[in-house]
Amino acid sequence: MAVDAALDPHAPVTGAVSLMHTLAAAGIEVCFANPGTSEMHFLSALGALPQIRPVLGLFEGGVTGMADGYARVTGKPALTLLHLGTGFGNGIANLHNARRARSPIVNVVGDHATWHKRWDSPLKSDVEAIARPVSDWLRMAANAQTLSADGAAAVAAARARPGQIATLILPADCAWGTTVGFSQPIPVPAAAPPDPQVIAEAVRILRARGSAAALLVRAAGGDLRGLQALRRICAHTGARPLTDMMTAKLWRGSGVYPLTRIPYRAELAVQVLQGVSDLLLVAAPPPVAPFAYPHFPSWLAPEGAKLTSLCHEQQDEVQVLEALADALQAPQVTAPVPLLPRPDLPRGLLTASAIGRSLARHMPEGALLSEEAISNGPAVLAELACAAPHIHMTNTGGALGQGIPLATGAAVAAPDRKVVNVQADGSGMFTLQALWTQARERLDVVTVILANRAYAVLRAEVERVGAQVDESLVAGLLDIGNPALDWVALARGMGVDAVSVDSAEAFDDVLALAMQRRGPFLIEAVMS
Amino acid sequence: MAVDAALDPHAPVTGAVSLMHTLAAAGIEVCFANPGTSEMHFLSALGALPQIRPVLGLFEGGVTGMADGYARVTGKPALTLLHLGTGFGNGIANLHNARRARSPIVNVVGDHATWHKRWDSPLKSDVEAIARPVSDWLRMAANAQTLSADGAAAVAAARARPGQIATLILPADCAWGTTVGFSQPIPVPAAAPPDPQVIAEAVRILRARGSAAALLVRAAGGDLRGLQALRRICAHTGARPLTDMMTAKLWRGSGVYPLTRIPYRAELAVQVLQGVSDLLLVAAPPPVAPFAYPHFPSWLAPEGAKLTSLCHEQQDEVQVLEALADALQAPQVTAPVPLLPRPDLPRGLLTASAIGRSLARHMPEGALLSEEAISNGPAVLAELACAAPHIHMTNTGGALGQGIPLATGAAVAAPDRKVVNVQADGSGMFTLQALWTQARERLDVVTVILANRAYAVLRAEVERVGAQVDESLVAGLLDIGNPALDWVALARGMGVDAVSVDSAEAFDDVLALAMQRRGPFLIEAVMS
Prior knowledge:
- The structure is a homodimer.
- Chain A is an alpha/beta fold.
- Chain A is built from 20 helices and 20 strands.
- Chain A folds into 3 domains: about 10-180, Rossmann fold (3-Layer(aba) Sandwich), CATH 3.40.50.970; about 195-325, Rossmann fold, CATH 3.40.50; about 350-525, Thiamin diphosphate (ThDP)-binding fold, Pyr/PP domains (Rossmann fold, 3-Layer(aba) Sandwich), CATH 3.40.50.
- In chain A, the strands form 4 sheets. A 7-stranded mixed beta sheet of chain A has the order 11-16-15-17-18-20-19, with helices on both faces. The first copy, chain A, has a 6-stranded parallel beta sheet with strand order 3-2-4-5-7-6, with helices on both faces.
- In chain A, helix 1 (about 15-25) packs parallel to helix 6 (about 145-160), helix 3 crosses helix 14 (about 405-415) and helix 12 (about 350-360) runs parallel beside helix 20.
- Chain A starts with 11 loop residues before the first strand and ends with a strand.
- The interface between A and B is large, with 102 and 103 residues.
């Protein structure tokens, strides 16, 4: 059963070979994999097909996070290969995040042969039940003959706007069974056009409300055309441009039209939204608090504010904003967004602000920033307004362990761009194995570990929810500094060069060098 | 709301405090935790109650694996604290293993406040759907007043023979809401007695079949009384004593009545079962292959062999075996099991056998062995027949990443016993974060990493399932030696002392020292 890019339509092949040809024809270019025994024929087909690059991860949470990073950067569907229900289980957290990011991902999950399941071997699990909660589309393959059609349907589901998680469960006998040929990809329907009535109503609101109106965008902030349309609208009407707290991809930096991000902390979010009488949701959900608090509302919009949906996620947000700008007869804005000066060399204590200033000094134009740092992220990001234009990607679903894998997948997607990962130490530990993939694939990622050696967000939250704080509790469950993690050793253990610094000057020096060299590098920033 | 071991039954307390008192009264002694924002009141109550020791893990897969180790060693229910559906997701793999081990575990999973869920905040997940596939018992708490009764029911479910996974989902408002008092523990029913008719039938089979009969045990192998009863039966009738491939806990070593373990590899398992006409299942499942193969049966018992269930898992296997021995009028066997000589110092290449011989030389009596090494485990275990009596614990469900956490939990359970973890490098990487907990709690664990730098089991399996092997496939997806993991650096990065050795003599030297000292220590055995 030869494997060839041009498959002889009459030659018998395994189901896995047939599937793989369909996946390649449908545009799959990378397979992030952590395989097991039941995936051997899939691996064999993958290894023989040069169009799909295999990237190995040592843990499934890394694999699914890499797929998210790849999908966010390219907009193309990423493929993962996972092993059984328990392997999928390990990938749930970052699939939850990827789903919130609307990243198109196809998971192929190997399972026992169909006839084997009745024996309830120790490795049997209910793959469908485990996969369903984070899958928008789910199918159990039935046999080798229909497998490639299942693959075509899975890719089409993943590509369906705004991007979905599609999971295809692949019993081993469907992979090793015999078939001929392969299914052609299924075309993806075009986005629904803007709704003229909704646009007309938005024009009315924006003209009537001026600066009491706000537009809340999500995907549009990751597209320079979207930002330009938003700028026209806001310059013409005075409306405020806002972006969702957990936007998957956002252009930022000096010279980029700046949006106001809804803060993670509900009390700050309420301040940002103060005075808004009309909130136009551009395929963004209404702003709500990430968590409930005993004495604080979950709903963040001001009382009486009217929320209007400008489009749904199956529409093209950029097209909708351009249609709105045209309907407003908003003139083109040709003046460049004013540039902000690069910060001076920070000195002294290594604070989040100092780290942010150094990043703003040295991060190259077009860098891809993976940021997972709830406690220190806001202070870093504030400084990055002065950085060269870059794409900011954050944790979209709140499940910890997204940052390192996301950076890894982003670097696979864009080998010519610098990837920077601003990473809290606590959340970094959930999926540190992805550093090994960075070393194996020689990916150009600079990881900055914000080493505060505590679950700092929890130390803050324990008071916010009105729970009693007690020093033994803090020492026992919220302090991760005993023993201190040595991130230089951890990185080197996985083949990634690393250094530790504890002053602003040293950080700036090392970061400057790290931005010049290529390949994975980690800086442990021991914070003051 | 004061927290006190002796709770004033009329004083208002939070639901979390009420729950915690019930859990303590029901015998919960340790809480393995990886908390988040929604668990703050639970943490506050936990921190104030001295009866329950909190043990922090940096990753939920470590937390659930530690709970399994603790439960296996003590037989008592372990408590975990997890955060939302995604945190539970990270714990699924080791809960699958724990469930296969029949370990009693209570998971408390924090969730958003009940009224907050309707807002679908980015961190919302369907906790019930994610938890159900690996939970034998599952309940969503409804309010603070009934929460401690839910806790009592959860512990009772976990303790129900043979041991279950009980998951209590705890919305934040149920934890911070007000109640008074707490629920008393629910008594656990006694085991059902042996069935005289079944015992009589077994007597008939054993007398008629002699050495063509075999008894397949599971939990009984972890109990010296169970082994003694089995010895009486087999000595008297000639029947063969077998133990399940994935037995959770098994006494082994020189002077211990030896059972034949059904091998992982189906072709070897068939050989072991050859000539068996009657297989008596002592609360063990029928022997089946872990995975299906295209040209090999999943069912391993010889054709025509009769399988008879001697008891079900809700019965007491030891009591059943003793009843059977008495019914057979099998005499007490008072002669000690012959001792085997300790191996000589191994020399030269560092092979699995050499590692096994050194372990047999130096492992102290009563050691707890956590073994997760599918490729090299059998060769190591063969040598351990000559070790001092010890308890062998293996991966019961095949989900990788059990060994390090299991050893960690075992050491929490038995601070006076030496814990040894024989750990493959590939599977070790799934949950390496548990090493940090070993350092934090100063646990007496010696970890031996079998560094073959490959997914060796998969290299073997790819041929067994009849898939094509290709060197680029091996290099791309089955070889984890590029770059080589440096386990000494990884261990030190988490505060655990470590050395690397690559000869049999050096391994023996280091192991002897490691067995003498106390506290966590890791030996990277770079295999020949």
